[in-house]
Amino acid sequence: MKFDIITIFPNIFEGFLSESLLAKAQNKKIVSVKTHYLRKWTSDRHQTVDGKPYGGGPGLVFKVEPVYKAVTALKKQQATSNRRQGKKTRVVLFSPRGKKFDQATAKRWSKMDQIIFICGRYEGVDERIAEYVADEVVSIGDYVLNGGEVAAMVAIEAVSRLLPGFMHKEESSVKDDHAQYTKPEVFYPSNKRQATSDNGWRVPKVLLSGNHKKIVDWRKAQG
What we know:
Number of helices: 7
Structural class: alpha/beta
Radius of gyration: 23 Å
Largest sheet: 5 strands, parallel
Strand order of the largest sheet: 2-1-6-5-7
Shape: elongated
């Protein structure tokens, strides 16, 4: 799986890509994550990637030309580096107006060979990017971020977890969410431990019962 990220702030990703399971997955060639500086595809000496919106309004808007050039170049690189036919590429634009990102989307994207993420900034992007350049427009939630970089991190982590070999235990990548507990069996929030008192925070008895069916039923109810 290859992730290509188009951004004007590539350094934002440095810590994210160099830690934990994602760093290990890159070393094991399970995923490849590349950031691409959008200004590289500009033609003026100021490397301009934005402009004032037609019709007026606050802020600046990403221009369609550099984004189009960037996506075209990255698609071409992928086609050149892989001789096999049938490679699947998806171009994703992050926007608050996009459809909601969910686990089903992550699973669908995990079947791709390349995903190109367009990370907008400022007041947004020229709408022609959404109409003609991106395959889909996606939002990670009902709120507004400074740009698409954090959204790209969310998507990369959610998709990567579904790839074979990424997680130490494959079932961890798809497990249902439910309440979890570990030692101690009873936690006393104060310094005074009084075993006979009711001031302890206890693990539910069903999880200590050893009855696998009851535990499964309890977890389903909690989920």
